[in-house]
Structure formats: structure tokens, C-alpha cells
């Protein structure tokens, strides 16, 4: 999402007018995080739930100043940013509920063989990895920032966070950091459960730091892959959870196009223009049927895009990449520009016009390595016209995996929809029916991640309750008396009388609810 | 576990006297596996459960020939190998139960916000990754072989397996492959749900093959790291689940040493000598207190080790490494040899004597990079004498993470045990109380994996029910009508009347048992 170039181009270092508390050199930050790790773990689920609630409350209390500062740095607009602070606080509270509920620990206890022969209990659960690094994104200074989803899930898991300051909004980063650290102290946790480092070199040093145990990243394919490679090349490799680029397809089937062109134009415009098209869930490829039905959708969509507000993009690198990227695509053979205005050279804060391009499905199929199938960050999309289902399928098959895809279908499209769903789900982490690709719902069933390059690890999510799992690893205790174990693992094992776990668990393969013996 | 050198030294290729059905060139094997993938997925949980049962039955029916062939190649002994066939069949059946039960899919359905505002359901579950590669170990030709844990969990997940033939027991591999493929066909699945490739180059080509989506590996640090690096360097990286080397510590506390020296000597000898010490769970470092209590344990242990049978090791490379490895360690300053016999040069099938060495905790602490803290495969161990808890803790802190560690403690050791458990659990995937490190119990609570180099990915297990998770990735369906979804995801979403999922699931955050509406 952010340009790696931006990182290099902008001068790192703390801004003059905000606190530098919590901003450290890499070695110092890593050492402090390692020292905070056992304390954070020892807070237990209840203590960490209180910590997250305190952080959520503190962000909400500071929302006016946070949103105003972020607006100065990102131009996303105060109302949008206030809503993002609310979302960010809600994310922290969601992980509080995840902790209170306790299933995430995956507690399993085996006491006998499949044939019923007893043995000293084996008890498995998940424990925190240790200090982790979090690289936030340019486009969501709160929700994917210092207090974003990766931080919320890591702290919930019991892992202190060393955040990398984003060069595109350093003052917002510093303010959020100060807010989180103040809340931590107030909740009885060390302030160093969240620290920060600044600058390009600090970022690369951080992922190589021996104390670090995992990395969460949201950003560009180039920057993300470089950090992924560093993590894999460590003497002891650590997991790198990167959300990189994604060209999300939205597919309109013929029946839907015929029945509701105006509605589709609205949903597709939302999918392209939300936050100036600067979201990882932007629909970058819009598949419309050839012929009159598709033409009607396209005409309504072009009008909407032409009439849309012109956004100020997040930073100069992103603006330059948008101008160059739309021009390069428009110049390709077989590609036409549908919208009236082209982005001029200019410089930020000059706004840019949204751009809609179009081509045929055969263009994608015949040149699968084309830049047309790469992400172009900003308010632009490529409309791909297809002749029939075969033509559509052939084009979709050439695409790299994505975070999300959308299928717009009516009753008359049922057979085609049924045939296409497995193909769409094969690459994407989320498949949306008759709705915009943007507008991720954050809850227990959320999936935000996909095949490479959408994610470097398609087995996890960066958003939603399941994200806590990326910061945990399993440990089994074999025959250890219950008195030596935490509450969550205590089972009555032949006479110690300590009852059942305080979390949902699995006993000899059978899932059981938690014991209500005591509050967790 | 196996020497990478062995791979290079031995001539690959199918043995003359067994079937080559299912043995393919890499491209052919990958293509066939990719073709089998949607068929295997479409079998559903019930169909794959039947497939695994058929494979278990077929292995058991062939057990005499399988064990005899493996004994010719490994010298592990027919009784040991018959028991291993039984374990291997049991593993396949365990995953059948995992499929029948269905929790592994992690089904979650969100229908409303935290404030109770409804929205089109978001349904999340896990889907198979696609074709995977499995590299088996030298030391468990069945349980970690072509039909081993990785194969069982991958097939259960819905992922076809391309196995790499082990050069140390190619005839056993071919026999197992033929048995599995026959069973698959009999169970209505394509034979190509399991295929095999042969030779060192084929192994490296396999992990680079575009169709492959993940790799399971059990073997040496050198070979495993090389394949890990290849997976990370792919244009689209794939997960590599490697179980590499592990020097598993067994710690005897003072009270236990005083109270039951003979019992400890027996358990420690089992931890060192099981299967000729050729297991990944061998205790390689035995921590005993200084003084008379520890001396008594050591005397009884030395006697047992000296009196133990001399095993024939698995192959010539492992034998050569054992002879050289024990000699190199014995020659280090501060190290004494406790057992009477030293392994001579000789060559396989000459048996080798077990070896017990000893040193002080300060030796480890003062030279943390020493080969004394590296795995030496075979029937040998290093006894480390410690003065007090501080001395013990300092030595333990220098060790790399391990698969397993054991703590031997009596009531009088409770305070020390309580202080040591977090340290032991910090690196190891399994902590054993007053028992041998070998003898992994396979069930729902099993954890077999640890920090690097024990595992390349400490977030998963290679054995036990949870192993199925390594071959799956999440997908969320947003607003898709239940009629388009598999049974496991169907919920009554406002009038379609299709009831509740047939697996345990989570509805708006609340865990619920599966609907008994129909059998899965």
C-alpha cells in the first residue's frame, strides 16, 4: 500500500512538536520489548483484556487531536479519520472479548488412548511468541497503524510490539504511541509493551534483531518482499506476516448487468473510489459482459467516476506512482481511457482525477504478465469486457491471488455463479456477493489475507478475531501436575481436584464448554 | 534425522524388484497431484475419512511384508517395525476422526455487529492449500514416511501428496506407495492422491514446482534449511514445515536424584537408547546434580548403557557421523567418557556401542556455540553435572530450542520445578514430567515441534490432530446465499431454511455444537 520509495525519500526521525517517549534505537527497543514480554504474559487474559480496553478508551478520548493530526499528514479528512479511530478502538475491544472467551488458546487435554487406556494427561495450549515488529500502512494511520490490527492482536496474544514509524505520518505515529503507553501504565502494564523505531535502516535492523520473534507488515510488494527475505535469511528464521499488493477483481454477471445497471454502477464506484482508491480492498479489475447490458453499467459507472471528487493522495510517492501508473496503462495497445480527465504532473497537495480504463478479456489472457494485472494504487480501475463464461474464466485464471473478490449475480446467473465461486475462492481470502469489495466487516469470521502477493502467508488473517493466532505457538505439557499449570490448563487428573479449565477445551477429542467454576 | 549426505551418496531410482507405479518425474508428479486436488477436495470430509480408513486397513493387511522389507533396509527389527505400522495406521484413523468431528474447519459465522445491527452473513472456514510435498525421515520408515503423519494430515485436509523417496529405504517407500494407491482406488479416490519422486535433484525441483503449495519435511538441519531457503526464494513463497535437529534436555532435580536413582537410570536410558538413539526425541543432554545423589544416578545409568544392546545404525552416513561425532565430543577439554567402549571405524552393518559422556554445566555456559549443544544422532548422550539451580539455569539458557524436554522432580523439588518450567517451555514444544522424552502420545493434544532448529515453523505440529491445520488456509464468504455453500457453512440466514452447520461452529462469537440435523 505504501511506497517503499517513500520510506527512503522522506527524512526519518521524530517530529519536533510531539513526544518522543517510547521512540528508541533498535537495540534499545528490542531489549525493552523483551523485558516487557514476561510481564505482559503474566498479566493473563483478564489483565490483557483490561489493557486493551484502556487503550481503546484512551484513543477514543484523544480522537479529536488524533484525527486532526492525521488529516494534516494524510488528507483523508477528519470525518473519515474519526470513524477510523472508532474502528481502531473497536478492534482493541474485539480482542478483549477474544481473551475473555478463551477458545483462542486451543486448550486440548488427552487422558487416554483411543482404546481407553489411561495415561498421565497431555495438555496442549498456545503461548505468546515474544516481542514482535509491526510495520503499519500509509493509508490507514490508525486501523493499520501503531495501534492497528497487528498491534491489537499481538498485545492480546501477550507479545510486546515494536512499531516502525511510518514516514508518511510520523506525528500521528508519535501521538498514538504516547496514547497507548499512557494507557498501558494506567492499566498496570509496562509502557514498553509498545515501543517504536524510526527510519528505513531501523526497519531492516529490527526484523534482524535476535529478540524479535515475528513481523506484521502492511505495505508495498517491494518493501514487503525485502523484509520477508530478511526474515527467512535469519540464522533462526521468524514468521513474516505481510499484506502486500492486491488487484481485486469484481465480476458482474450478465443477468445482474441487465437487471440493475444503476445499482451496480454505485457499488462498483464505491469499490474503486473509497478513500481515494487508496485501500487494499479496492476493486482494480471490473469484469463486465460485452453488449448492451454491460454498456449500460459502464455508462453509468463512467458518469459516476467522472463526477466524483478528486482526492489528494497520501504522499508524493503515491501521487507520482498514480500519475505514471495510469499513463502507462492507458498507453498500452488495446486499452482505452473512459473518463474525461487525465492526472497531470503537478505535485501534492494537488488533487488527482479518478481514472477508468477499459480493455477486452483477451488482452489479459494473451499477456498474463502485463502491468494491467498489477496493483495501481489510487482512484483508478480497469474495466475488462468479456464475451462469455469461457472468456471470463480464461481471464480470471491469469490473475494473481487477491485479498478479496466480488461476484455480482442475479437469480438468472445461478449456474454461472456456482461454476465461478470455486475459481474466485481459489485465490482470494474473501469472496463478496453483490456488494462492494471495500468495507471489511471486523468480527469473529473476518478473513483479510490471500495468496501471494496479497499475503506472504495465506494461512492467517491480519484483521479479525483469528488474527491472534499468528502470534502464538503450541506447547504440550505431559504429565505435569495440575498445580504447576495455569488456570486454563487445570483438569481433574485423578485426584488433584482442581476441576476443569476456565476456557472452552477439548477432552479426549470432545469439545467442551468452559467450566463456570470461577471467572476467568 | 537423516544425513543429507546420504541423499547425495546413494544412487537414486526405483529398486528393481518392486512396483514403480506412482513414481514419476517431478513435472509429471506435480501435474497429476494438481489434477487430483479438486477430486480429493470434492470427496468431502466423509469421503476422505473413508479414504484414510482404507489406507490404514491396507497398511495393516500388508504389515508382514512391509515390516520385513523395512527391516532389510533399516535394521530396526521386525517387532519394532510392526508396531510402527500399527502406529502409522492409527495416525491415519485419527485424522478420520478429526474429519468426522469437523471442528478443524474453524467455521465461524458473523451475522451482526457488536451493537446488534444485522448484515449479510460472513462465513469463514478453512480450505485445502493444494498439492504438497512430503519428505520422510530415515528413522521412521512408516510413521514419518510415505504414509506418515504429514501424508495423513495432508490427505485429511484435502491436499494430494507428492512424496520424496527416501534413499535409505527406497523399497519400503515403493511398497508403501503401492499400498496407498491401491487403497485409494478401492475407496473411490484417484490413485494420484499420493505420488512419489526419486533422487536429490528431484527433491529440490519438487519444492520449486509452481503447482506445489507447501512442504513437510523431517530430516537434517543442513538438508532442511536448504529446502526451506528454496521455498522462501520462490517467486511465490510457500510454507516449509521442517522438523530438523533437536538436542533434547532431560533435567534431574536433586530430590528426585536422591529418592529414586534406579528408576531415573531406567527412564534416562530409555530416553537415550530407544531405537538405537535414532529418534528426534532422544534426550541428548542429561542434567544431573553434582554430589552423591547425582553420582548414584550416573553409576546406575552408566551400567545400563554399557549393558545395552549395540544397534546397527540406519545407514552408512549416519554410522560414520556417529563414530566421528562421539569421538569429536569425547576429545573436547572438560569432557570425559563414562562408558567402556568407543565406536570403532568399521562399516555398516557392524553394530556400534552406546556412548555416555560427561562434563560440567560451566563448560556449556562458557562455550555456548560448542558442538556439545548440537545433535549427535545415535545412542549417545552428554551428562551435564550442575552445582545449583543458578548453574543449571545458566546452562539451560545457552541451549537452542528443542522438540521436547523432561523434568524429573519430586515433592521436595516443587519450588525449583516451578521456577524452571517457564524456562523449559520457552524453547520446547513439549515438556515431560518424570518420564522419558521418547514415546510421543498421538492424539488431540499432541505437540511435536519447537523453536528453530527443532522446527522451521514453531506455530504448527507435525504429529497429532492439530497437524491438519498446516495444510489449510482461511476463506470468508460474505453475503453468499447458503444454497451456494457447502453443508459445513449453511446457516439459516433470514429465510433460506437450511438450518445450522453440520460441524461445531461459532455464531457471532459464541461457540456452538454441530447440528445433528444430518450425519456429516
Quaternary assembly? homodimer
Amino- and carboxy-terminal Cα gap of chain A? 39 Å
Number of strands of chain A: 17
For the largest interface, the chains and their residue counts are: A-B, 79 and 79 residues
Largest sheet of chain A: 7 strands, mixed
**Which structural class matches the secondary elements of chain A?**
alpha/beta
Residue share in helix of chain A? 25-40%
Point out poorly predicted stretches of chain A. Answer: 1-13, 493-497
- Average pLDDT across residues of chain A? 93
Q: From the alpha-carbon coordinates, what is the Rg of chain A to the nearest angstrom? A: 25 Å
Question: What do these coordinates show?
Answer:
2 copies of one chain form a homodimer. By secondary structure, chain A is of the alpha/beta class. Chain A is 39% helix and 17% strand. Chain A has 16 helices and 17 strands. In chain A, α11 crosses α12. The first copy, chain A, is globular. At the A-B interface, α5, β1, β2, α9 and α16 of A face α5, β1, β2, α9 and α16 of B. β14 of chain A pairs parallel with β15 (472-478) of chain B, so a sheet runs across the interface.
